[in-house]
Amino acid sequence: MAIAATNFRELRLDRLSRDFGTVNALRDVTITVKRGEFICLLGPSGCGKSTALNCIAGLLPATAGSIWLDDKRIDNLRPEQRGFGMVFQNYALFPHLTARRNVGFGLLMRGVPKAQAEARIDEAIRLVRLGEQENKLPGQMSGGQQQRVAIARAIVVEPPLVLMDEPLSNLDAKLRLEMRAEIRRIHDEIGAATIYVTHDQDEALSLADRIVVMREGTVRQIGTPRELYAAPAHLDVAEFMGFRNRLSGKVTAVAGDRVTVAVGPTTVTGAAHQPIAIGAAAIVAVRPEDMTPAPASTQSFAATVTASEYRGRDFYGLARTADGAEIAFRADNAIATGTPIHLSAAEARVLVFAGAA
Amino acid sequence: MATEAIARPPAFERIPLGQRLAANGLDAVTALCLPAALFIIALFIYPFFYGLFLSFEPKKGDWLANYQRFFSDSFFYGTIATTLWLALPVTIINLVVAVPVALQVRHMRWQRVLTTILVLPITLGTVLVAEGMLNYLGPQGWFNRVLMTLHLVSEPVKLVHNYWGVMLSLVITGFPFTFLLILSYVTGIDAVLEQAAATLGANARRRFWHVLLPLLMPGLAITFCLSFVQAFSVFPSAVLLGAPAGPTRVISIAAYQAAFEEYDYSMASAVAMVMAFVQLAIVVAVLGVRGLFYRGPAAGAKG
User: Fold this and answer.
1) pLDDT tens-digit readout, A62-95
2) Residue ranges making up the domain that contains B66
3) Nearest residue, CB atoms, A95 vs list B200, B206, B296
4) Does B197 sit within 8 Å of A143, measured CB to CB?
5) Interface pTM (ipTM) of the complex?
6) CATH numbers and ranges of domains, chain A
7) Which residue among A67, A151, A195, B10 is least enclosed by CB atoms within 10 Å?
8) Which helix (H) or strand (E) holds A146?
């Protein structure tokens, strides 16, 4: 028998908030998750993403707002009444039960008849490719195996929604890539909605259908990975999407969404996704990989190389301008520290945001 | 001639004795165990064997005479049942009450204050608690006066100088100890396991039976043993609050009387040995049962 998610249309968080004393861990978070969707909550630690997940699971009561599963309000239900599957950061496997009985725990609690339960456990174990490990105790298994048990345990009850709290953060780099693909495959196979919390933008970009970028308890931007990667709406979203270079300047010309900014003696042109006026303070954001050595001109930054490191295919370096701004760049060849250099980025790769650094 | 130049493989070199001992866990640091070992030998092992040998040297009769006397006279062997009849219920009551209290207390913000209050009876000592109970629960005490004033009873309820007095005092003085041990075992269980059980559909009752209790079992077994041994060696409250001539003539009273009323140290030693054996039998049985349960760490994952 196949494991398929319980049918539902959508999960809605409506202005969900959570305070810890006077601290707003979560403020007015509104998200709609459709059936079959893979949503990543992305943000630095302390941004409220795990708080949001715990509120959805019912492990943490929200202080304001509501959660809806289709037309049913569920934020007043206890976690055991919500029926969502959850994968915890440290897996939270029951140490006294074998892998198989861990997986079967949810079915036992639901009183599923034994024969049917056994078949579903078999299917879940097959789905996560656990194989021969099923009669081991969690303490006898590797991190990756425990991870598979935790996922099987969460999906075997066929939940409408699977919640994952940084499930890969305890694994080594190679296993992390492997399990990432596995998680997406399992998601596609069972058709539940998945809400996945991470602070790793690579993980979010490769896994998610839509990414919710959070910061200081609020949602900064919701969009597909492509949208967020190409056109982050906020400077801190841009930062999370790899725009490490942030240079302050003044707007000198505006033509539609093409904005020209003077950064010291250099003029840079890029795209602005919000209205911005001539003369306003602006921040130019560029990814290090788009900032490359260029001929000297008014459009390039004159700087001195302060560090350079080998990355296999190419070199990444740091350079300092005469104004003291630091620029991270990419180069095809090694450049010695102390070398004067000119750096520029293609117009399509430059973003302009209003505000001062 | 070239053979001389070939060095012998290191494996054949003699490793110094010190290094070999260190590899087996014996080095200078091991010597730090010595004071503790001497202490145990002087205060426990030597007296134990002294008593054991003494019990086989009765005042009259052959070497087993003391034990023959003990097991043929109900005045002696009856104390085993009397003591068990006190110690087992007291231990079980303390455990059964301590577990839910500890489960609640671990989530409390004022955990420390509450723990301090609960632990206070330990610091007071058995005698003070006994005196207090004599006044409070006695025929003229507050407890009975309130019951009589409310016309709930027509004559005072007898709660001291009998079985119930000893039992109550053992619960009061034993509970804090049991509670503290249980609390440390309960807080050792990763809270996220309960959350995981909840997301899998287990309500509070089933989380207890399926997750908390199995993980708590080894701790409960140890706590049972320690609490039981403590209750089994009851002496002051059995004398002060009980009926030491009859219903609460516990085994330690028998030993005391043999030693200090009959001045028969040999017989007293025999009683003490029987006492030790009964305790040991119960402890071994409980630890044997513990072996049937999971005994690993009570956390969700390694590290």
Assistant:
1) 999 999 999 899 999 999 999 899 999 999 999 9
2) 37-290
3) B296
4) no
5) 0.84
6) 10-234 (3.40.50.300), 243-354 (2.40.50.140)
7) B10
8) helix A143-155
